[in-house]
Every structure is written in C-alpha cells, then in structure tokens.
Amino acid sequence: MKFTILSQSKSTSLRTGIIKTPHGEIQTPVFMPVGTVGAVKTVAPWELRELGAEIILGNSYHLYLRPGEKIISEFGGLAEFNRWEGPILTDSGGFQIFSLSGKKSQNGNSLVKITDDGVEFRSHLDGSKLFFTPEKVVDIQLAIGADIIMPLDVCPSSKASRSEIEKAVGLSINWLKRSKNHLESRIMNHESGIKTHNSELIIQNSPALFGIVQGGIYPDLRQFCAEEMIKLNLDGYSIGGLAVGESQAEMLEIVKLLDGILPKDKPRYLMGVGTLDDIYQATKLGVDMFDCVLPTRMARHGIAYILLLTQSSKLRTLNFKEINMLKSVHRADKNPIDKNCQCPACSGGFSRAYLHHLAKEKEILGIRLLTLHNLFTYLKLIKEIRLKVAA
User: Fold this and answer.
1) Confidence of residue 315 (pLDDT cuts 50, 70, 90)
2) Is 291 a catalytic site residue?
3) Distance (Å, whole) CA 185 – CA 201
4) What is d(CA 80, CA 62) in angstroms, rounded to the nearest whole number?
5) Is 318 helix (H, G, I), strand (E, B) or coil?
6) Whole-angstrom Cα distance, residue 68 to residue 221?
7) Other Cβ atoms within 10 Å of 227 Cβ, number
8) DSSP letters of 251-305?
9) β-bridge mates for residue 309, sequence order
C-alpha cells in the first residue's frame, strides 16, 4: 500500500491524498460503506460504484462465522466472491466481540473472557465457544483477501473505568506487535514457498496493517498508545473506541490530540464514525478514512439525510438535515427528498409521499431508495470536502 498526499489546507489539517492498493486506488478523504457480512445492505456492487464508492468494509468476525474464510479464499477473496472487485478493508471483529462483554450467559457469566493470549467468546449465532488470537485474526483476513486489515484489539465500553481502559491499551499494543510479526512471517513464508502449520490458507494479498489507537477519553492513555504504535512503523493508524457514548466535543478533542501525534505521511482512519457533521469536523483534524452504518441502518428506519450547500461570494458552507419519512407530514408531498440531489431516488422523481408510503409498509424498495440516497449524500459530502481543499 502506498499513500500520497496531494493537497493540504492552509488553515486546518484537512488534506487530500491517494491510497494505492492491490485492488485499485482510493481518493482521500474517503467514506467506506459498511458491508459487514460481505454486502452493503440492499445495494449491488455496480450501484455502489455508480454512487461513487471507492472502497467497502467487511467484518472478519461475521465472515468467519458465515460463510467462513476458507470458502471466501477458494473464490479468490472477498472482492471476487461478492463481485465488488475493488479495494476492501476488514475490521478485526474486536468491537463486535467486546460488545458481547456486557451480556451474560444463563448462569450469569460474561460471554467474553479476555486473556493475554487472546479472547474467548461465544458465537451470537449458535452459542458455540470460540477463541481468537491476534495471529488467528490476521490469518482470517489474509484468507478474505482484504487490502487493509485491522489487528485484534480490546475495545472497552464507554462506561469502563480508567483501569479497564489502561489494561485495554496494554493488550492492544501487545496484540498489535504479535499481529505485525505474524503478518510479516506469513507473507515471507508464502513468498518463499515455505509450508507452515496453516499452509492450506491461500494468501490473496499482501495487505496493509493499521494500528488501532485506544485510550478512551483519557489524553495521556491515547498519547501513550499512539506513541507505542508509531514505533512499529505501520502502514496507517486507526482511532478506535470513539462514538461509543461520549459527546461529539469529547470525540473531536481526542481526534485533535492525535492529529498532533500521528505521522502526517500515513493515513488516519476514524473507526465507526459517524454523522455527516462528525465526518466534516474530523476531516479538518486530519482524518482521511471513515466508515459508519448510519446511512444504511437509518434508511431501514425511514430516515433520509440531506446535505445543504450554501454558496456566498467566496465561501461554500456545508450544513446537514435529517428527515423522518415516516412522519405524516410527507403523506401527500410531491417533492423529492432533496430537489438538488442527483441520487437514484431524487433524480428518478420518487416523491416524499411515495417514499412515506413505502416506509410505512416496510417495503424493500423504500429501504433501497433511502439507502441509495443516504449513501449518495455521504459520498457527496466527501467530494465537497475534497473540493474545499482545492479551493
């Protein structure tokens, strides 16, 4: 993977760049639609490309459970299996695993047990016991064939104590070191034709590995974690453990802190964030990559997002609006969601009244149209942000 900065704002840390991967180039800043189980919900790969998506996200935990990484590998990797045929980033599944930690089994025990070696947990599908190590998670992602992979990390709850978050930072650093060593060993052995204990694994790519900076909202823990991960000279750096209950101000304060610490010549990825305004504000703090389920998830609940552009003599202002299509005020509205939008729903002439009807009936077409609109809006925001750097 190669990252090149193309332009830099004079007043903020906002910049544009290009990430070159085995499956193609990605312009940054970039928004990555979430395809947790290998598909962005209700949207076909060609539609994603038509909307302007350049990279999608998959989840190692879910793909490991079904259909299994070995099946994906036999098809030539996820980009071939799901016919996206473009760059893919995979999350390690750490967030999904640790989201189970607050849940209890019937006997009152936690569904997640963390050790120095890895994490033991139970499948949310059938309750079977599983154990993930940093090495196993790397192997899963190698089989999936992602272009950018994430290490197993500990993602504590927003309500966790400082001592819990401090422990999470220590484990995340140690697991990252193991992930990096294992990845380098697997690629070296593969290129040398050396058989290993897991030689049946077909390596689809030599992926880029990002670190995941943890530390909650504690500046000193964030700084320590970032500095330790920088020593490993990674391909990029992710900011994890945010958008999990803290305020936007607290989140942006941590992002601002890390803007001054993380290397300028490496891409920064703010994981799981967020609203249109979250993304807009974070790009000004030097973040290059984003993913979030909001545009697809909220479409399934009848929510449409609107990007409002105001042009004065010298200033182009971005604002945002949320519309609930389930509200009766839209029942006879002949207007599209946004008359200035060129998404398939708006440019296709679908009225708010019709979308209101579809949303009330829980009709799949309604979900699809709102999803296409929301994704188009998120991707349009990214294009507008890139233009602001060039202006």
Assistant:
1) low
2) yes
3) 14
4) 18
5) strand
6) 36
7) 13
8) HHHHHHHHHTTS-TTS-EEETT---HHHHHHHHTTT--EEEESHHHHGGGGTEEE
9) 318
Please tell me which residue in 139, 278, 291, 338 is annotated as part of the active site. 291
Q: Which amino acid is at 216?
A: G
pLDDT of residue 199: 47
Q: What pTM value is reported for the model?
A: 0.95
The CATH superfamily assigned to 2-292 is: Queuine tRNA-ribosyltransferase-like (3.20.20.105)
Q: And the tokens for 107?
A: 């006997």
* C-beta atoms surrounding 314 within 10 Å: 6
- Report the distance separating Cα 201 and Cα 192, nearest Å: 15
Read out DSSP for 27-87?
EESEEEEB-TTSS-TT--HHHHHHHT---EEEEHHHHHHTT-HHHHHHTTSHHHHSS--S-
Three-state SS letters, 124-189? CCCCCEEEECHHHHHHHHHHHCCCEECCCCCCCCCCCCHHHHHHHHHHHHHHHHHHHHHHHHHHHH
Is residue 122 helix, strand or coil?
Answer: strand
Domain parsing of the chain, residue ranges: 2-292, 299-390
With tokens 């330790």, the residue in question is 228
pLDDT recorded at residue 202: 64
Distance CA 23, CA 387 (A): 25
Chain-wide mean pLDDT for the chain? 93
The two structure tokens encoding residue 367: 């979900």
pLDDT for position 197:
47
